[in-house]
Amino acid sequence: MLEIPSNVLFRELDGELFLVNVDTGYYFALDPVGSRMWRALGRHGSVTGALAELRDEYEVEPERLRADLAELVARLREHGLLEGIS
Predict the structure, then answer these.
(1) Most buried residue, 1, 38, 57, 79, by CB count within 10 Å?
(2) pLDDT value, residue 19
């Protein structure tokens, strides 16, 4: 289950989402598509659940969407902005 750590703050501004790990000071900005992925991951707690939600919204091959989500999860985990197993 993927979870947003309690030390991560996030705010949306002009369609972008800004994430901050308050323990490390690392921040990360997501464009509108990345923001949509973030919200889907947060709602479902897994790449599989997020995929099911996003598949109908974006005209992209399922393999590409899965790869993009996996890359986002890896980058967020690397900087302590997301934790858990997808």
Answers:
(1) 38
(2) 97
